[in-house]
Design goal:
GO terms for molecular function: hydrolase activity. This is Alpha/beta hydrolase fold-3 domain-containing protein. The protein is an alpha/beta fold and 236 residues long. It has one domain: Rossmann fold. Helices cover 27% and strands 21% of the residues. The protein contains 6 helices and 7 strands; from the N terminus they run βββααβαβααβαβ. The strands form 3 sheets. It has a 3-stranded parallel β-sheet with strand order 3-4-5. The protein has a two-stranded antiparallel ribbon with strand order 1-2. The longest helix is centred in the N-terminal third of the chain and has 14 residues. The radius of gyration is 19 Å and the shape is globular.
Length: 236
């Protein structure tokens, strides 16, 4: 699951991968999953931008679990004849073939928090030529300082994630002196900006049935629902 997957700019099973540096000073980089297309196919593909989870502290974008998910996403978009990429020219050309009018944000766990943090202010500014077409926080890391019943019972703890681990991750990630009621983790806290009146794209929240902090995430999601005009909850 956490094994790192090397880049392959040649198409393997209909998908090629490469990295693009967004900001050379900060080193922010995105890994692109490009589906194959026929040489005469000039259609534009939607963009899915994923923020990976890991409690703001661990996990990497090149881990195998993400690779398997996003190569499948790319193949679902289009699976066509094999084509080899020119390392210098192709990335720019593929960006030109991307449909910036259909940009979707997805994030798992703490990445779901980042999705919300991007979407909330984005509705108040002109992003042209980019248009956010949808947002999908997947079991986002919405918490509060007060323990939920499921956290107290610790019934869904696993060797991979415990309540104590969540506490330690957030203690390291949030600004010094902050609590879990910080706006990045608690959307209904006093310090969080109001959602009423904000212009959100279609917004789907997925909450896992056996999530360690399911009650808190579901409660905050319902709170969001009451303030947005378009929403979906997916209990899996």
């Amino acid at each position: 699951m956490s094994k790192r997957v090397e880049l392959h700019e040649e198409f393997i099973n209909g998908v090629a991968t490469y990295d693009l540096t967004i900001n050379s000073k900060s080193g922010i980089t995105v890994r692109v999953y490009e589906p194959e297309r026929k040489s005469n196919d000039d259609s534009k593909f939607p963009i899915v931008l994923h923020f990976h989870g890991g409690g703001f502290c661990i996990s990497q974008y090149d881990w195998a679990m993400y690779y398997h998910v996003y190569t499948k996403f790319a193949r679902m978009a289009r699976a066509v004849d094999r084509r080899i990429r020119d390392k210098l020219a192709e990335p720019d050309r593929e960006l030109a073939r991307s449909d910036f009018n259909r940009v979707f944000l997805i994030g798992d766990s703490s990445g779901g928090n980042l999705v919300h943090a991007v979407v909330a202010p984005a509705g108040e500014v002109d992003l042209s030529p980019v248009r956010l077409a949808g947002a999908v926080p997947v079991h986002p890391g919405f918490v509060r300082s007060v323990r939920s019943e499921s956290e107290k019972r610790k019934e869904f703890e696993t060797p991979f994630l415990t309540v104590d681990m969540v506490d330690k991750f957030l203690a390291m990630a949030l600004p010094r002196g902050s609590t879990k009621d910080h706006p990045i983790t608690c959307l209904m806290g006093e310090a969080a900006p109001p959602l009423s009146g904000m212009k959100f794209p279609p917004y789907m929240v997925a909450v896992a049935e056996n999530d360690l902090i399911k009650e808190m995430r579901l409660g905050l999601t319902i709170w969001i629902m009451k303030r947005l005009t378009r929403h979906v909850i997916n209990m899996s």
